[in-house]
Amino acid sequence: MGNTKVYGYMRVSTREQNENRQRIALIEMGVPEQNIYMDKQSGKDFKRPQYQKLLKKLDSGAVLFVKSIDRLGRSYADLNEQWRVITKEKGADIVVIDMPLLDTRREKNLLGTFISDIVLALLSYVAENERTNIRQRQAEGIAAAKARGVRFGRPPIPMPDNFKEMRLAWREGKITMNEAAKACQMCPKTFYEKAVKQEKTCLERYTF
Q1: Staple partner for 68: which of 76, 98, 106, 188, CB 3.0–4.6 Å?
Q2: Pairing of strands 5-12, 62-66
Q3: Which residues are identified as catalytic?
Q4: What is the DSSP track for 84-129?
Q5: What is the dihedral sign for C-alpha 141, 142, 144, 145?
Q6: Are 46 and 116 in a shared domain?
Q7: Which residue, among 122, 141, 172, has the nearest Cα to 130 in the 3D structure?
Q8: Among 111, 79, 78, 110, which Cα is nearest to 96's?
Q9: Same domain, 112 and 186
Q10: Tens digits of per-residue pLDDT, 28-49?
Q11: 113 and 119 in contact (C-beta within 8 Å)?
Q12: pLDDT band with cut points at 50, 70 and 90 for residue 208
């Protein structure tokens, strides 16, 4: 690519997500491996260390490759703003590998810019809308699971067999709360909370 400085940007949401597909696509486009920057975090905003480091490298002689627009970001407003910063303020070009229309090197005229702006607006809207839909589906799934009686979080620790005996001994003043808690292998605070809860349950059971 002559004297053009070529960079690539990758993003994966979690440490488990495989980034090889993005890396291979960037290398196939001629991006040197040492010029590939990657963040492993959410695309909800642009406060990402590697992206910020990359941004400082970009200038009017640079081309930035990304595999798809959602790898760059998912927020509609932020994505459009960063596109403006890169192409207008920095003067660099952007190439979205999966969307050939988003290649600012092509047709650097009013029509070419207009088409790129429309495609970018559409794709960034779709990216953010999908993120919103995923959150909504997750919330609906959790609500439905709770309605079916599914419990979330760590399962409750079963009560020790001697808990009732120790609770009664403590209430009758035969042993201290610390002694009762120790016999049940609990801290005093946990023992007290469980004792009160058990007594309340018993009271409600026999209240008519």
Answers
A1: 98
A2: parallel
A3: 13
A4: HIIIIIS--EEEETT-TT-BTTS--SHHHHHHHHHHHHHHHHHHHH
A5: positive
A6: yes
A7: 122
A8: 79
A9: no
A10: 999 999 999 999 877 677 888 9
A11: no
A12: very low
- Return the number of other C-beta atoms located less than 10 Å from residue 43's C-beta: 22
Q: What is the CATH number of the domain that holds 127?
A: 3.40.50.1390
Helix ranges (H only) for 8-75 are 20-28, 49-57, 69-72
Residue 26: give the domain boundaries.
5-138
- 12 secondary structure, DSSP code: E
pLDDT class of 126 with cuts at 50, 70, 90: low
Residue 53 falls within a domain, yes or no?
yes
In terms of C-beta density within 10 A (0-12 exposed, 13-18 middle, 19 or more buried), how is residue 53 classed? exposed
**Is 176:170 a contact under the CB 8 Å cutoff?**
yes
As a whole number of angstroms, the distance between CA 86 and CA 80 comes to: 10
